[in-house]
Amino acid sequence: MSINLQKGQKVSLKKNVPTGLGEILVNLNWNSKQRKKGFLASLFGSDSAIDLDLGCLYELKNGQKGAVQALGNAFGSLDKPPFVSLDGDDRTGDVAGGETLRINGNKISEIKRVLVYTFIYEGVVNWKDADAVVTIKYPKAEDIVVKMDDFNSSDTMCALALFENINDETFSVEKLIQFYRGHESLDRAFNWGLKWVVGKK
């Protein structure tokens, strides 16, 4: 069984282990191969592979803010601030496990909020054919599924889910699926206040 969130819906994670929430896995999987739409489409690159990147903005209780993502090699750390880490970078979408963010739920008292996003690093902006799905897993609980079921956008970045601290006991998780032109516009929409520069991976 799993919980399939609807856009704007919030659920609270359940504390099922004595130490806290345990390790929270946020996995992104997608279909890298665009559907071919004929000879002219292929000439203009519409059937090219798509490279989605998973990442997040984080804000700690002490005011520390930042991003965890492959771009800029900001892979984070699970056992020390920001208590969020990214496993790796799937350049193709063909890796069975996709990409996974890990959040240390036992450090919830130090984490204020985490905004999970994905962006198209390479490939044509075609969210529908990417068919991306986020699955949130944590100990002894049902999976929480966030499907990208809204795809009418030419923007390259999508806010997927927002984790917010509730009384240092649990996180609420809200399905967003909101599109932005890039990191800066996403940042402004959620009042993060970071300074952004062009990065490479």
How would you explain this protein's 3D organization?
This protein has 201 residues and is mainly β. It has three helices and 13 strands. The strands form two sheets. A seven-stranded mixed sheet has the order 1-11-10-3-8-7-6, with no helix packed on it. Strands 2-13-12-9-4-5 form a six-stranded antiparallel sheet. A hairpin with a 3-residue loop joins strand 12 and strand 13. It is globular and about 45 Å long.
Task: Summarize this structure briefly.
The chain has 201 residues and is mainly beta. It has helices at residues 39-43, 127-130, 183-189; strands at 2-4, 10-12, 23-29, 51-60, 65-69, 76-77, 84-86, 99-104, 111-122, 133-137, 143-147, 157-166, 170-180.
Query: What's the β-strand tally?
Result: 13
Q: Helicity, in percent?
A: under 10%
CA-atom Rg in angstroms: 17 Å
Reading the helices and strands in chain order gives EEEHEEEEEEHEEEEH
What characteristics describe this protein?
mainly beta, seven-stranded mixed β-sheet
Layout of strands and helices, then pairs:
Layout: E1 2-4, E2 10-12, E3 23-29, H1 39-43, E4 51-60, E5 65-69, E6 76-77, E7 84-86, E8 99-104, E9 111-122, H2 127-130, E10 133-137, E11 143-147, E12 157-166, E13 170-180, H3 183-189
Parallel strand pairs: 1-11
Antiparallel strand pairs: 2-13, 3-8, 3-10, 4-5, 4-9, 6-7, 7-8, 9-12, 10-11, 12-13
